[in-house]
Amino acid sequence: MLTDAITVLLVDDDPGDVDLTREVLEEAKIVLNLQTAHDGVEAMAYLRREGRYTAAVRPDLILLDLNMPKKDGREVLAELKRDPVLRHIPVVVLTTSDDEVDIYKVYDLGASCYITKPVGLEQFARVIRHIETFWFTIVQLPPEVRR
Q1: Half-sphere exposure of 64 (CA within 13 A, CB side)
Q2: What pLDDT, in 10s, does the model give residues 13-31?
Q3: Integer distance in angstroms from the first to the last C-alpha of the chain?
Q4: Where in the chain are the domains?
């Protein structure tokens, strides 16, 4: 594993979205370490370095879907932002929901931003490229996240 890589945890139960996100991020001009979790329970185990994730690298950014089995994205976000060790990790909510209630709720819970997934493949890829450009070349991520 590359130590200079930016680690991204993608939490999404849709295999197609995971594959497309991976493909787009692999084209990036920066070194990325993309990790995935397929539901909220797995995401929290990864973030807390539990079970098979004891050697997990703390992510610099989390891409979080809202509607997932076992534990949804709202629950993950709430737990994450209550945890003094994890709460500084920026969270980009990337979901199909454009419900105003969801938007207000996740910002209240501490999300860094909210993006509604576009339906088309090319539009989805464009959104991922914009996330990459903004979060990995413009934004300064908190240094304590990398520990």
Answers
A1: 33
A2: 988 888 888 888 777 667 7
A3: 15
A4: 6-142
